[in-house]
Structure formats: C-alpha cells, structure tokens
Write a structure and sequence with these properties.
Layout: H1 15-27, H2 39-47, E1 58-61, E2 71-74, E3 77-79, H3 81-92, E4 96-99, E5 108-109, H4 110-115
Parallel strand pairs: 1-4
Antiparallel strand pairs: 2-3, 4-5
Helix pairs in contact: 2-3
Amino acid sequence: MKGAIQDLKVWLFDTATAIEKLPRVIASEKRYFVIGKSPVTLQRIAKAGISLQNANGKINVGPMSARADTTTIGPNQAVNAAEIAAFDWLMQHGHQIEFRLVPDAGCYSWQDARQKLK
C-alpha cells in the first residue's frame, strides 16, 4: 500500500481502557493513529471527555460492511440506527466526518451520506 509505515507498534484497547489511556497518549510528544471500531465507540470516548480533535481535523471512516438492519450509503459503507445517531452527534459536536475507503480514493462527507437516508 502506498505510504505504508514500517515498524509500527500497535495497541488494542476496549473502550474503557481507551478512555483511561488516551489522555496520556494525546499529551505525549509522539504522534499516534487512533482507530475506533464504530462511530458509537468514538461517541462514547468523546462523551467521556476525550478529545477526538486531530492534525487533519477529520474523522476518517473506512469500510463499514452491510449487516442486518443497515442502510447502504456508499460503496462498502452501510450504517444502522445507532451509527447514524453517533455520526449525527459527532458532527453536531464539531467533527468533520469523511468516508474514504483507501487513502488514494475519493471521499464524501457525513452530510452527503446523510442525504441518502432521507
């Protein structure tokens, strides 16, 4: 993959551990890449008082496969009611949400995706 990083350390946390550890990560001089399993997870982290602000000013959303009770909003992008509510909440709290499957691909915003749900 273009731009892949070599020798990268990876840590996996459940939401409660992430809420505990992310303040130290954010305060660190090092740069980290945080990946959440779903927008609901990111909403829980933000509601716990953890800032999701980052250097590029966006929350990038990758693939979200079709599942039971989801609506397709783009290629390999499907959301359920809880995810819709979480994306709405994140946007209302100042986050720019961008759907981009791979770094070199085009993207669209949550506002654009939201229009497909009406």
